[in-house]
Amino acid sequence: MSVATQRQGSSTDQASYNSCANPIQHRPRNYVSYPGSSYILPSDEDEQARLALQHRVLVRALGDRLVVAPITLTPGNHVLDCGTGSGIWLLDLASKVSPDVQLQGIDIEPRLFPTTRPENMQLQVGTATKLPEEWSNKFSLINQRLLIAALKSIEWPVVLKEIHRCLAEGGWVQLLEAKRWGAEGPHSVKHRQLLELLFSSRQLLIDCSVQLPKMLGEAAFQNVHVEEYRLPAGKWAGQEGIDVRDNFINVFRGMKTPILNAGGLGYVNSEEEYDQWMDDMAQEWDETEGTTVDICVCYAQKVPVEA
Ligand SMILES: C[S@@+](CC[C@H](N)C(=O)[O-])C[C@H]1O[C@@H](n2cnc3c(N)ncnc32)[C@H](O)[C@@H]1O
Protein backbone atom coordinates (compact mmCIF):
# COMPACT_ATOMS: atom_id res chain seq x y z
CA MET A 1 0.00 0.00 0.00
CA SER A 2 1.32 3.45 -0.83
CA VAL A 3 2.14 5.98 1.88
CA ALA A 4 -0.68 8.07 0.43
CA THR A 5 -3.29 5.42 1.13
CA GLN A 6 -2.01 4.81 4.65
CA ARG A 7 -2.23 8.46 5.58
CA GLN A 8 -4.97 9.63 7.91
CA GLY A 9 -6.94 12.84 7.46
CA SER A 10 -7.83 14.77 4.35
CA SER A 11 -6.71 13.60 0.98
CA THR A 12 -7.77 14.77 -2.37
CA ASP A 13 -9.69 12.54 -4.67
CA GLN A 14 -7.68 9.60 -3.40
CA ALA A 15 -10.07 7.21 -5.05
CA SER A 16 -9.04 8.36 -8.51
CA TYR A 17 -5.34 8.70 -7.60
CA ASN A 18 -5.29 5.21 -6.18
CA SER A 19 -7.09 3.73 -9.14
CA CYS A 20 -3.61 3.51 -10.66
CA ALA A 21 -2.25 -0.01 -10.22
CA ASN A 22 1.25 1.16 -9.31
CA PRO A 23 1.30 4.37 -7.28
CA ILE A 24 4.84 5.40 -6.32
CA GLN A 25 5.58 5.64 -2.59
CA HIS A 26 6.25 9.16 -1.32
CA ARG A 27 5.52 11.61 1.46
CA PRO A 28 2.22 13.20 0.38
CA ARG A 29 1.02 16.70 1.31
CA ASN A 30 -2.56 17.72 2.14
CA TYR A 31 -4.88 18.05 -0.82
CA VAL A 32 -8.49 19.19 -1.11
CA SER A 33 -11.26 16.62 -0.86
CA TYR A 34 -14.11 18.46 -2.59
CA PRO A 35 -16.28 15.93 -4.46
CA GLY A 36 -15.47 15.66 -8.15
CA SER A 37 -12.55 18.11 -8.01
CA SER A 38 -9.57 17.55 -10.32
CA TYR A 39 -7.47 20.17 -8.50
CA ILE A 40 -3.84 19.06 -8.41
CA LEU A 41 -2.17 21.47 -5.98
CA PRO A 42 -1.86 20.99 -2.23
CA SER A 43 -3.58 22.93 0.50
CA ASP A 44 -1.18 23.35 3.40
CA GLU A 45 1.13 25.84 5.10
CA ASP A 46 3.77 25.62 2.38
CA GLU A 47 1.12 26.33 -0.24
CA GLN A 48 -0.11 29.30 1.80
CA ALA A 49 3.44 30.71 1.81
CA ARG A 50 3.75 30.04 -1.90
CA LEU A 51 0.48 31.86 -2.61
CA ALA A 52 1.82 34.88 -0.69
CA LEU A 53 4.98 34.91 -2.82
CA GLN A 54 2.92 34.37 -5.98
CA HIS A 55 0.70 37.32 -5.10
CA ARG A 56 3.74 39.61 -4.75
CA VAL A 57 5.19 38.31 -8.02
CA LEU A 58 1.94 38.82 -9.95
CA VAL A 59 1.08 42.23 -8.55
CA ARG A 60 4.60 43.44 -9.36
CA ALA A 61 4.26 42.05 -12.90
CA LEU A 62 1.01 43.98 -13.36
CA GLY A 63 2.70 47.24 -12.37
CA ASP A 64 1.46 47.16 -8.79
CA ARG A 65 -2.15 46.78 -9.87
CA LEU A 66 -4.71 44.42 -8.37
CA VAL A 67 -7.39 45.41 -10.83
CA VAL A 68 -6.60 45.60 -14.52
CA ALA A 69 -10.22 45.86 -15.73
CA PRO A 70 -11.37 49.46 -16.31
CA ILE A 71 -13.45 49.94 -13.18
CA THR A 72 -13.19 52.22 -10.16
CA LEU A 73 -14.70 50.58 -7.10
CA THR A 74 -16.99 52.83 -5.08
CA PRO A 75 -18.88 52.40 -1.78
CA GLY A 76 -21.71 49.93 -2.14
CA ASN A 77 -19.99 47.91 -4.89
CA HIS A 78 -19.62 44.16 -4.37
CA VAL A 79 -16.48 42.28 -5.46
CA LEU A 80 -16.10 38.48 -5.73
CA ASP A 81 -12.85 36.51 -5.78
CA CYS A 82 -13.53 33.05 -7.25
CA GLY A 83 -11.12 30.34 -6.03
CA THR A 84 -9.80 32.77 -3.45
CA GLY A 85 -7.34 30.34 -1.78
CA SER A 86 -5.74 32.23 1.12
CA GLY A 87 -7.82 35.30 0.24
CA ILE A 88 -4.65 37.28 -0.33
CA TRP A 89 -5.95 39.22 -3.35
CA LEU A 90 -9.06 40.28 -1.39
CA LEU A 91 -7.04 41.20 1.70
CA ASP A 92 -4.77 43.38 -0.42
CA LEU A 93 -7.79 44.94 -2.15
CA ALA A 94 -9.40 45.63 1.23
CA SER A 95 -6.45 47.82 2.16
CA LYS A 96 -6.89 49.90 -1.01
CA VAL A 97 -10.64 50.49 -1.33
CA SER A 98 -13.33 52.05 0.82
CA PRO A 99 -14.49 49.85 3.74
CA ASP A 100 -17.95 50.25 2.20
CA VAL A 101 -16.95 48.11 -0.79
CA GLN A 102 -18.18 44.60 0.05
CA LEU A 103 -15.63 41.83 -0.57
CA GLN A 104 -16.62 38.18 -1.02
CA GLY A 105 -14.44 35.12 -1.57
CA ILE A 106 -15.41 31.56 -2.47
CA ASP A 107 -13.30 28.41 -2.62
CA ILE A 108 -13.87 24.66 -2.46
CA GLU A 109 -11.28 24.48 0.33
CA PRO A 110 -11.43 26.65 3.48
CA ARG A 111 -8.15 25.43 5.00
CA LEU A 112 -6.19 28.43 3.72
CA PHE A 113 -8.78 31.09 4.57
CA PRO A 114 -7.25 33.87 6.71
CA THR A 115 -8.15 33.70 10.40
CA THR A 116 -8.54 37.44 10.70
CA ARG A 117 -10.11 39.63 8.07
CA PRO A 118 -11.73 43.04 7.73
CA GLU A 119 -15.44 43.40 8.47
CA ASN A 120 -16.29 44.03 4.81
CA MET A 121 -14.75 40.71 3.73
CA GLN A 122 -16.72 37.45 3.73
CA LEU A 123 -15.50 33.99 2.74
CA GLN A 124 -17.46 30.86 2.03
CA VAL A 125 -16.98 27.33 0.82
CA GLY A 126 -18.41 26.52 -2.60
CA THR A 127 -17.54 25.85 -6.19
CA ALA A 128 -17.15 28.28 -9.05
CA THR A 129 -19.18 25.86 -11.16
CA LYS A 130 -22.30 26.57 -9.09
CA LEU A 131 -22.27 29.97 -7.44
CA PRO A 132 -25.09 30.73 -4.98
CA GLU A 133 -28.44 31.54 -6.61
CA GLU A 134 -28.78 34.73 -4.59
CA TRP A 135 -25.62 36.18 -6.16
CA SER A 136 -27.34 36.84 -9.54
CA ASN A 137 -26.59 40.38 -10.87
CA LYS A 138 -24.73 41.29 -7.66
CA PHE A 139 -21.05 41.96 -8.32
CA SER A 140 -19.36 44.92 -10.03
CA LEU A 141 -16.12 42.97 -10.36
CA ILE A 142 -15.36 39.25 -10.29
CA ASN A 143 -11.72 38.23 -10.09
CA GLN A 144 -10.49 34.71 -10.76
CA ARG A 145 -6.79 33.92 -10.70
CA LEU A 146 -4.97 30.73 -11.62
CA LEU A 147 -7.61 28.01 -11.77
CA ILE A 148 -5.66 26.37 -14.61
CA ALA A 149 -4.82 23.41 -12.36
CA ALA A 150 -8.41 23.12 -11.13
CA LEU A 151 -11.07 23.47 -13.82
CA LYS A 152 -11.84 20.72 -16.30
CA SER A 153 -12.42 21.57 -19.96
CA ILE A 154 -16.16 21.09 -19.57
CA GLU A 155 -16.21 23.25 -16.41
CA TRP A 156 -14.67 26.40 -17.92
CA PRO A 157 -17.79 27.38 -19.95
CA VAL A 158 -19.98 26.61 -16.93
CA VAL A 159 -17.86 28.80 -14.65
CA LEU A 160 -17.86 31.69 -17.14
CA LYS A 161 -21.66 31.50 -17.42
CA GLU A 162 -21.95 31.48 -13.63
CA ILE A 163 -19.67 34.52 -13.40
CA HIS A 164 -21.75 36.26 -16.08
CA ARG A 165 -24.95 35.52 -14.13
CA CYS A 166 -23.49 36.91 -10.92
CA LEU A 167 -22.16 40.14 -12.43
CA ALA A 168 -24.27 43.26 -12.29
CA GLU A 169 -24.97 44.85 -15.67
CA GLY A 170 -21.89 46.82 -16.66
CA GLY A 171 -19.73 44.74 -14.31
CA TRP A 172 -16.36 43.27 -15.24
CA VAL A 173 -14.74 39.84 -14.95
CA GLN A 174 -10.96 39.65 -14.66
CA LEU A 175 -9.16 36.34 -15.21
CA LEU A 176 -5.44 35.76 -14.82
CA GLU A 177 -3.87 32.53 -16.09
CA ALA A 178 -0.44 31.13 -16.89
CA LYS A 179 0.25 30.78 -20.60
CA ARG A 180 3.77 29.44 -21.09
CA TRP A 181 6.67 28.74 -18.84
CA GLY A 182 10.22 27.51 -18.63
CA ALA A 183 13.35 27.20 -20.70
CA GLU A 184 14.02 25.26 -23.89
CA GLY A 185 16.46 22.92 -22.10
CA PRO A 186 15.81 19.18 -21.65
CA HIS A 187 14.48 19.36 -18.08
CA SER A 188 11.87 22.02 -18.89
CA VAL A 189 10.81 20.51 -22.22
CA LYS A 190 10.32 17.07 -20.68
CA HIS A 191 8.39 18.54 -17.77
CA ARG A 192 6.01 20.41 -20.07
CA GLN A 193 5.34 17.07 -21.82
CA LEU A 194 4.60 15.43 -18.46
CA LEU A 195 2.24 18.24 -17.50
CA GLU A 196 0.34 17.91 -20.77
CA LEU A 197 -0.22 14.26 -19.95
CA LEU A 198 -1.14 14.94 -16.32
CA PHE A 199 -3.60 17.68 -17.31
CA SER A 200 -5.26 15.62 -20.03
CA SER A 201 -5.50 12.58 -17.71
CA ARG A 202 -7.52 14.75 -15.32
CA GLN A 203 -9.46 16.58 -18.09
CA LEU A 204 -7.78 19.89 -17.15
CA LEU A 205 -7.35 22.60 -19.79
CA ILE A 206 -3.63 23.38 -19.94
CA ASP A 207 -4.10 26.02 -22.65
CA CYS A 208 -7.05 27.75 -20.98
CA SER A 209 -5.34 31.14 -21.39
CA VAL A 210 -5.44 30.77 -25.18
CA GLN A 211 -9.08 29.68 -25.17
CA LEU A 212 -10.40 32.24 -22.71
CA PRO A 213 -11.17 35.09 -25.14
CA LYS A 214 -13.34 32.80 -27.29
CA MET A 215 -14.97 31.19 -24.25
CA LEU A 216 -15.75 34.64 -22.82
CA GLY A 217 -17.51 35.58 -26.05
CA GLU A 218 -19.48 32.34 -25.98
CA ALA A 219 -20.53 33.11 -22.41
CA ALA A 220 -22.11 36.39 -23.66
CA PHE A 221 -19.36 38.71 -22.44
CA GLN A 222 -18.49 41.78 -24.47
CA ASN A 223 -15.54 44.17 -24.60
CA VAL A 224 -13.10 41.29 -24.23
CA HIS A 225 -9.50 42.44 -23.68
CA VAL A 226 -6.32 40.40 -23.34
CA GLU A 227 -3.05 41.60 -21.84
CA GLU A 228 0.08 39.45 -21.78
CA TYR A 229 3.02 39.77 -19.43
CA ARG A 230 6.43 38.04 -19.49
CA LEU A 231 7.94 37.40 -16.08
CA PRO A 232 11.71 36.80 -16.13
CA ALA A 233 12.44 33.53 -14.34
CA GLY A 234 15.78 32.42 -12.89
CA LYS A 235 18.86 33.78 -11.16
CA TRP A 236 20.03 35.51 -14.34
CA ALA A 237 17.21 38.05 -13.71
CA GLY A 238 18.22 38.91 -10.13
CA GLN A 239 15.83 38.77 -7.16
CA GLU A 240 12.76 39.25 -9.35
CA GLY A 241 13.76 36.19 -11.40
CA ILE A 242 14.49 34.17 -8.26
CA ASP A 243 11.02 34.94 -6.87
CA VAL A 244 9.33 33.92 -10.13
CA ARG A 245 11.44 30.76 -10.30
CA ASP A 246 10.77 29.79 -6.69
CA ASN A 247 7.04 30.32 -7.05
CA PHE A 248 6.54 28.34 -10.24
CA ILE A 249 9.02 25.54 -9.49
CA ASN A 250 7.14 25.12 -6.20
CA VAL A 251 3.88 24.85 -8.15
CA PHE A 252 5.43 21.90 -9.97
CA ARG A 253 6.78 20.40 -6.73
CA GLY A 254 3.18 20.59 -5.45
CA MET A 255 2.01 18.37 -8.31
CA LYS A 256 4.25 15.52 -7.15
CA THR A 257 1.51 13.53 -5.40
CA PRO A 258 -0.92 13.41 -8.36
CA ILE A 259 1.98 12.48 -10.65
CA LEU A 260 3.40 9.75 -8.39
CA ASN A 261 -0.02 8.41 -7.44
CA ALA A 262 -0.64 8.03 -11.16
CA GLY A 263 2.46 5.81 -11.31
CA GLY A 264 4.74 8.56 -12.66
CA LEU A 265 2.90 8.64 -16.01
CA GLY A 266 5.91 7.06 -17.69
CA TYR A 267 8.17 10.00 -16.82
CA VAL A 268 9.39 9.35 -13.28
CA ASN A 269 10.00 6.30 -11.10
CA SER A 270 10.59 7.62 -7.60
CA GLU A 271 10.07 10.60 -5.32
CA GLU A 272 13.84 11.24 -5.26
CA GLU A 273 13.93 11.32 -9.04
CA TYR A 274 11.08 13.86 -9.17
CA ASP A 275 12.71 16.06 -6.51
CA GLN A 276 16.02 15.97 -8.36
CA TRP A 277 14.24 16.83 -11.60
CA MET A 278 12.74 19.95 -10.00
CA ASP A 279 16.20 20.98 -8.70
CA ASP A 280 17.67 20.46 -12.17
CA MET A 281 14.87 22.43 -13.80
CA ALA A 282 15.41 25.35 -11.40
CA GLN A 283 19.11 25.31 -12.30
CA GLU A 284 18.23 25.22 -15.99
CA TRP A 285 16.11 28.36 -15.55
CA ASP A 286 18.97 30.01 -13.61
CA GLU A 287 21.45 29.30 -16.37
CA THR A 288 19.21 30.08 -19.36
CA GLU A 289 19.03 33.81 -19.85
CA GLY A 290 15.65 34.77 -21.30
CA THR A 291 13.65 32.10 -19.47
CA THR A 292 10.21 33.48 -18.65
CA VAL A 293 6.84 32.59 -17.24
CA ASP A 294 4.19 34.20 -19.43
CA ILE A 295 0.82 35.09 -17.98
CA CYS A 296 -2.25 36.62 -19.47
CA VAL A 297 -5.01 38.72 -18.00
CA CYS A 298 -8.37 38.66 -19.78
CA TYR A 299 -11.07 41.07 -18.77
CA ALA A 300 -14.55 41.41 -20.20
CA GLN A 301 -17.85 43.12 -19.47
CA LYS A 302 -21.46 42.07 -18.93
CA VAL A 303 -23.48 44.54 -20.92
CA PRO A 304 -27.26 44.82 -21.04
CA VAL A 305 -28.92 42.71 -23.71
CA GLU A 306 -30.52 45.04 -26.27
CA ALA A 307 -34.26 44.64 -26.62
C1 LIG B 1 -3.63 28.16 -7.43
S1 LIG B 1 -4.79 28.51 -6.18
C2 LIG B 1 -5.04 30.27 -6.46
C3 LIG B 1 -5.63 30.99 -5.27
C4 LIG B 1 -5.93 32.46 -5.50
N1 LIG B 1 -6.82 32.64 -6.63
C5 LIG B 1 -4.68 33.25 -5.71
O1 LIG B 1 -4.42 33.67 -6.83
O2 LIG B 1 -3.94 33.46 -4.72
C6 LIG B 1 -6.32 27.85 -6.84
C7 LIG B 1 -7.45 27.86 -5.84
O3 LIG B 1 -8.64 27.46 -6.52
C8 LIG B 1 -9.40 26.67 -5.64
N2 LIG B 1 -10.36 25.89 -6.42
C9 LIG B 1 -10.12 24.75 -7.13
N3 LIG B 1 -11.23 24.35 -7.76
C10 LIG B 1 -12.21 25.25 -7.45
C11 LIG B 1 -13.58 25.38 -7.80
N4 LIG B 1 -14.20 24.51 -8.61
N5 LIG B 1 -14.28 26.42 -7.29
C12 LIG B 1 -13.69 27.31 -6.45
N6 LIG B 1 -12.39 27.23 -6.09
C13 LIG B 1 -11.66 26.23 -6.59
C14 LIG B 1 -8.36 25.86 -4.87
O4 LIG B 1 -8.88 25.32 -3.68
C15 LIG B 1 -7.28 26.93 -4.67
O5 LIG B 1 -7.48 27.62 -3.46
UniProtKB/TrEMBL annotation:
Keyword Transferase: yes
Listed Polar residues bias regions: 1-22
InterPro entries in the cross-refs: Methyltransf_25 (IPR041698), SAM-dependent_MTases_sf (IPR029063)
Region annotation Disordered: where it falls in the sequence: 1-23
Keywords in alphabetical order: Methyltransferase, Transferase
Domain Methyltransferase: 79-171
Signal peptide span: none
Molecular function per GO: methyltransferase activity
GO biological process: methylation
The protein's name: S-adenosyl-L-methionine-dependent methyltransferase
Organism the protein comes from: Gloeophyllum trabeum (strain ATCC 11539 / FP-39264 / Madison 617)
